[in-house]
Input
Amino acid sequence: MTDSTMESVESFRLRARAWLAEHMPPRDEAPPPLVEDDAHEWERARELQQKLYAGGFAGICFPREYGGLGLTFAHQQAFTEESDPYEMPLMLNVPTFAICAATLLDMGDEEQKRDRIGAAVRGDEILCQFLSEPSGGSDLAGLITRADRDGDGWVLNGAKTWSTSAYAADWGLCLARTDWDVSKHRGLTMFLVPTKAPGVTMNRIRMINGNREFCEEFFDDVVLPASAVVGEVGGGWTVASRQLFHERNALGGGSPFVSGRGEPRTMPRVTPPNAVRASGRADDPRVREMLGEHLTLTKVAEQTADRVSRAIESGGLPPAAASIPRLLHAEAVQRGEDLALRITGSNAATGTGAGEGMGGRTAIGYLMRQSASLGGGSTEMSRNVISERMLGMPREPAPDRDVPFKQVKRGR
Amino acid sequence: MELSLSPDQKLLQESARGLLEQEYSLDRIRGMEGNEPRWSRDWWRKGAELGWAAAIVPEKLGGGSVSGEGVRDLAVLAEELGAGVAPGPLLPVNVVLAGLVAAHGHGPGHAAEIEALVAGESIATWAVYEPGREWTPSDPGLTAAPADGGYVLDGVKDRVEDARQADLLLVTARTPDGVAQFLVPASASGVTISEQWTVDLSRSFGEVRFDGARVDAGALVGEPGADGIVERQLQIAVVVQCAEVCAVLDRAFAMTTQWAFDRYSFGRPLASYQALKHRFADMRTWLEACHATTQAAAAAVQADSPDAAELISVAKSFVGERSLTILQDCVQLHGGIGVTWEHDLHLFLRRAILDQALYGTPADHRLRLADLAAL
Output
């Protein structure tokens, strides 16, 4: 479709406004609390997506040939603004649309794009990522899940972990080692794996705050056809890099494939302002100073993210500078947890009666203090990126560089 | 600070750099003796010709900014002077001008004083602190009692920058109608000025006593009880402080990074040790954050936007505290030479200590943020 035949953003906005008012349910003011059995929420998300598809408002920035509308980010932003008062299938944004479908669009073959993106846009399928491994940590490319050739197809064996909402997904993008005779980045291949395939075992991981969103998977002789390969055999790192780019883009709010605003579900978190209100210590200057510190750090993190993204766009800073807001965000979140705990004071020790209450919720929030500096790559890796790629300092020695992976030491 | 400067702002920056390098090298500043004047009026007049006292004064009052955004131009200048830990009354003169311009149209006009300040022919400074008191501009102990159509001032101010070189003192005082400010000649009878020690080698401060000092009603700036003028002055002061500290940090960080590449220990450069690389990454991150928050504060003050008060307190709270952390890390990474008189680092640290202390400490600004958040 050429620009001259594309519907204007304003016309699209007005059409969306009218359709949303007639077809979509109004949004609940308070998001539902996170519960262990959330199967009905996923069912609800699929239904809402099917509704959007039927109404012609699904996959706004995906090409028409893969089930989308082939419109621009501006159209998507207009729709997101208009859809704010309504219930939206937010659970499908990340990772299904913004990361997995976006990666398939860049790297998949025609059939994968048509089938998987099409099914996701129609609300028929949910996608997830199988990247991290139990022994991997920050060394993503050092993974040992293997796919071995078997005739035209492949046999997958190994284990993955930290797969967000994989329990609800139909397909996973799985990075596996297919060549052990080359160095670690060169021997990888990306596969599309059905989550219900024979040989796939999945567990939900229980976190210290009760959250069970993450999963771990075990693959025992999972048989995959040749058509499961995404991109080139041996070119898995290129696909994964694209995937990580889309992940950063989604978390930074820059993805054109996110439809609707806000977090799908939130763990109850006690921020320092809430702690001040609940503690009854708003007149204590020590508490007020802590509140001021929190307000400072959150504002500075925002201001810096804004400045750095503008600087990267204009070429004033290299893309590696994206690690700067990542570090500041982690610092602001961690300090926020510290301050909330200190403001709550002795009330963090016990709940309200038999319930956790505000004091208990502060303590539970503090249990997860480090998550902001672990998720999406550890802050240590961000610091390496800043010192090595921005300041040009010598890289860390890596005994696995340019060594056939089978010769790389893995454990003592 | 700004991501990109206009050609006019670049010119302003380059001309300032030239004038500074010519006169005040870091070696000259290191050699400054206790009683020696920190800067010459000739030098300041040359700066004024380049626009150092004109940026935030509207053209109709004899001023003018090169970009049309005077507060941002002032921040560019402050960075330039900060980078060289320069002497000179950039902050006090511009803070007084901010007050006179904000008050213009309310009470006496002070057009002649503004003109002389813009031209660099006259020097003014803000007498707002009082001995033994922290930052409480709205609660002065110095009194201004109405008498014979004028006022009589009694009380003591201290931490008054360039008090001995100033021609005019902008004094906060308590009147029966609320807090007011007066523009008082330093030579007025009843005014006594004495030197105060200060940590920054290129700055000077004084204590000013007012013993029955008489001023006429024309000395009034604005109207008693109006606190918007003091707020505007504070905002300008903090923008100047944060901008100059950003430049100080840029220089100290560049110097320390270079050191990490040049200095070898155990057969390899310091820059190759992960424990140190991670500290450099943190410092680089905080440095970007200092610039981001200063730029946002300057833009808000420029636009006189409703969140200007909040954003200057965010900037001061962050830059004031983090600047000291970064500079002490620079000292640590230099090792013992970082605490020698011959090394330049202490000149930067002195300026940062001074700037975090005045016009509200980081702690004061945190309390202000809590007040502004109405919690």
Notes: The longest helix of chain A spans residues 285-313.
